[in-house]
Amino acid sequence: MTASANHTKPLTDLPPVSAWLSDMDGVLVKEERALPGASQFLDALRSKGYPFLVLTNNSVFTNRDLSARLAHSGLDIPEDNIWTSANATAAFLQQQSPNSTAYVIGEAGLTTAIHSAGYVMTETDPEYVVLGEVRSYDFHALTRAIRLIEGGAKFIATNPDVSGPSDEGTLPACGSIAAMITAATGKKPYFVGKPNPVMIRAGLNTIGAHSEHAAMVGDRMDTDIRAGVEAGLRTHLVLSGSTSVDEIENYPYRPFGIHEGIGELIELVGAAIG
């Protein structure tokens, strides 16, 4: 099928990039330290007046919390320029069933977003059970979630990540706990966070940008780049985080560009190209 027949264009024929989405960990910061070129990349976006979002699958912290943590790392990123899996989940729920009810297992980042979406959080016959990241999972809360799902509540989870890093080593993440609930109920959740392109498209909507004019920068082929590809963005993989150059061939899709770090993208921002 030709490009004209299916109304798509090769990425090289798309208009110049004028909006940028960037993953946070492994792209802009690592172990709470700003990566080389991160601050200059953000400055370049501001100097061009380009809308941008910093994305993370972490649903624990509010946007304000993350903005403060990034500032401690030396990066000036206002909370309105942050888009988390909690934000995306709340936007998804608001679109699917406005002003409804949910039983929520999560920290302030998720509960704040769900409240802001106009939802009532309740244990009594909720329409949804929403699972996010928490610092410690409560057996009673998980049992309640299982029984509500068995009773007909729809199962939503913020992100599919099965593990996360900590100073002490690997921690179980949302995907692992979701798998436990699935094993008990036979019901799989709908994951809203990356690699679901729903998170990307919802983020673009918040900054008034279109996929044809946007680029996604990430350090993981399986989440960041996949989500960007499926949302129709030009994707840029940086090798400062999870995916190594040798692993790229393991995937059936390719990033638009491959770079050692975020600093190599500053020139692209200045040139207003993909």
Structure description:
The chain is of the alpha/beta class. It has two domains: 14-57 and 194-271, HAD superfamily/HAD-like (Rossmann fold, 3-Layer(aba) Sandwich), CATH 3.40.50.1000; 97-191, Rossmann fold, CATH 3.40.50.1000. It is 34% helix and 19% strand. The chain contains nine helices and 15 strands. It has helices spanning 38-48, 63-72, 85-96, 108-116, 139-150, 174-185, 197-206, 221-231, 266-271; strands spanning 19-23, 29-30, 33-34, 52-56, 82-84, 101-105, 120-121, 128-131, 154-157, 163-164, 171-172, 190-191, 214-218, 234-238, 257-259. Strands 5-4-1-13-14-15 form a six-stranded parallel beta sheet, sandwiched between helices. Helix 8 links the parallel strand 13 and strand 14. Helix 3 packs parallel to helix 4 (108-116) and helix 3 crosses helix 7. The longest helix has 12 residues, at 85-96. The protein is globular. It starts with 18 loop residues before the first strand and ends with a helix. The relative contact order is 0.17. Keywords: Hydrolase. One of its GO terms (cellular component) is cytoplasm. This is HAD family hydrolase. It comes from Pauljensenia hongkongensis.
